[in-house]
């Protein structure tokens, strides 16, 4: 079903398309870099429609409870200032895209973009409110962690959510985690879409 981008209320949220989550990175998501050209196409559509684009990044200190060394489950990844924390070099964000960072608090996992803030320290929800956004189009890495947590929080906060299934990939620590995450996302009230469903 066709979905028209409405710049008065829609935003694109590009979740954690960082080197460490792409093949070759310390926590490479299988096929993770396949989302890059697809998200570039979505970003171009949003830019052409005059709708805002947000891009989140994991932005961890070297020591955090999120890493195995701090009692968490993950190998170190997306440490502030490292190459692994950079966005994938092929990611083409509009010049006026807003970068939001999360995970800098060593006491938080911060899977959700609703724990992220802008460079000026504005919480993501406030930045959305400032732009009048009430519908989010969400894609990126990874379906079973940060995409899922972001979508579930957005729904709780009262946003409509469209999850971009062709622009997301899963870690799949256990086989099927990505499929289960997508089912949970849809059961919670988000709709799924693909690039061909969108009109500018
Ligand atoms: C993520 C695993 C660990 C994600 C973050 O961005 O989905 N996954 N930290």
Report on the structure:
By secondary structure, this protein is of the alpha/beta class. The protein has a single domain, classed as Isochorismatase-like (Rossmann fold, 3-Layer(aba) Sandwich), CATH 3.40.50.850. The protein has 4 helices and 9 strands. A 7-stranded mixed beta sheet has the order 5-4-3-2-6-7-8, with helices on both faces. Helix 3 links the parallel strand 6 and strand 7. Helix 3 runs parallel beside helix 4. The site of pyrazine-2-carboxylic acid has 11 residues, from helix 3.
Give a concise summary.
With 200 residues, the protein is an alpha/beta fold. The chain is built from four helices and nine strands, in the order ββαβββαβαβαββ.
Supply the key terms.
binds pyrazine-2-carboxylic acid, seven-stranded mixed β-sheet, single chain, alpha/beta, 200 residues, two-stranded parallel sheet, Rossmann fold
List the helices and strands and how they pair.
Blueprint: E1 3-4, E2 10-15, H1 35-49, E3 53-58, E4 98-102, E5 117-118, H2 124-130, E6 135-141, H3 143-156, E7 160-169, H4 177-187, E8 191-193, E9 198-199
Parallel strand pairs: 1-9, 2-3, 2-6, 3-4, 6-7, 7-8
Antiparallel strand pairs: 4-5
The structure holds pyrazine-2-carboxylic acid.
């Amino acid at each position: 079903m066709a979905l028209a981008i409405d710049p008065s209320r829609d935003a694109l949220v590009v979740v954690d398309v960082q080197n460490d989550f792409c093949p070759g990175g310390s926590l490479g998501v299988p096929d993770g870099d396949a989302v890059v050209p697809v998200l570039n196409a979505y970003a171009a559509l949003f830019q052409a429609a005059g709708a805002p684009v947000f891009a989140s990044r994991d932005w961890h200190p070297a020591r955090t409870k999120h890493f195995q060394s701090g009692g968490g489950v993950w190998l170190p990844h997306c440490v502030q200032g490292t190459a692994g924390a950079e966005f994938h070099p092929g990611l083409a964000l509009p010049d006026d895209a807003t970068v939001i960072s999360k995970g800098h608090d060593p006491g938080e996992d911060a899977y959700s973009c609703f724990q992220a803030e802008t460079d000026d320290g504005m919480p993501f929800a406030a930045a959305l409110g400032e732009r009048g956004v009430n519908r989010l189009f969400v894609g990126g890495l990874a379906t079973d962690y940060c995409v899922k947590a972001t979508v579930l929080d957005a729904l709780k906060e009262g946003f409509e959510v469209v999850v971009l299934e062709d622009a997301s990939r899963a870690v799949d620590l256990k086989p099927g985690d990505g499929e289960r995450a997508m089912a949970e996302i849809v059961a919670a009230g988000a709709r799924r879409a693909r690039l061909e469903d969108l009109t500018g």
